Amino acid sequence: ISPASELIVEKPSAGAKSDKATYKDVGGLSNQLQRIREMIELPLRFPQAFLRLGVEPPKGVLLYGPPGTGKTVIAKAVANETDAWFTHISGPEIIGKYYGESEQRLREVFEEAQAHAPSIIFIDEIDAIAPKREEMGGEKQVERRVVAQLLALMDGLQARGQIVVIAATNLPNTLDPALRRPGRFDREIAVPIPDRRGREEILQIHTRGMPLARDVDLIRIAEVTHGFVGADLEALAKEAAMAALRGIMPSIDFEDFQVPYDHLRTMEIDMKNFTA
Ligand code: ATP
């Protein structure tokens, strides 16, 4: 979750490394990816097949699970793999707008997605814009209007299957049930904390480009990192790399910057650098 000051609208091909995510960058979630591919990739790729079969592809898919488990990476990966236009909105950012602006931005996002179909609209932290309506007191007027606008936009989506809204939340039970009715977010996929095997796959992904010493045993690291989510494992791998660097550059003197180039070229990250 990265709070940004503006609504982010991006195309996956023109971005940072994570925007290039593919299914190979998602670890430990093969069942979830399988379902995502059936629900989103197939209709995006073969809309005629769904029409012919009389099967309605979903308009909305809800990914729920703890923070840092890979919900955003999954959404980006499916967009990249299908070459779909990708738009990313975050719930709290929409709510932060002035009166009437939130709905306007939502409408713009949907219009843009329609113009660029096939498209994926990713709404991160949807719980911020769509808490249960009965729980919204007088001060929750903005949320009430934004939920109503989102529901209207989803109901009005044409080109069914060619525009898919993927929403992510850590708090599925706080969502307005109206959002989960048929024709809206009627498919749900749990994105859980990874198990040992999942942690191993995620560690493999995040150490892929690293010069690991022979003693580095990712299976062992996966065993002792119970409770770590993907974001934690990524941070662990980065921290190990920094620890290795500190090992050969114990005190970095920025005044008289001496980089031991030979060491840098041959340096490796070894097991003791991984301190979970
Ligand atoms: P939040 O609810 O906080 O938005 P999220 O579930 O959307 O979290 P991501 O943003 O997808 O989490 O993941 C955060 C970081 O952790 C990403 O940079 C990603 O590389 C890494 N990561 C998380 N889960 C996985 C995973 N299953 N496989 C590979 N990397 C992962």
Automatic annotation (TrEMBL):
Boundaries of every AAA+ ATPase domain copy: 57-195
Family: Belongs to the AAA ATPase family. CDC48 subfamily.
Protein name as it appears in the record: AAA family ATPase, CDC48 subfamily
Species the sequence originates in: Dethiosulfovibrio peptidovorans DSM 11002
Residues of the full protein shown: 151 to 426 of 707
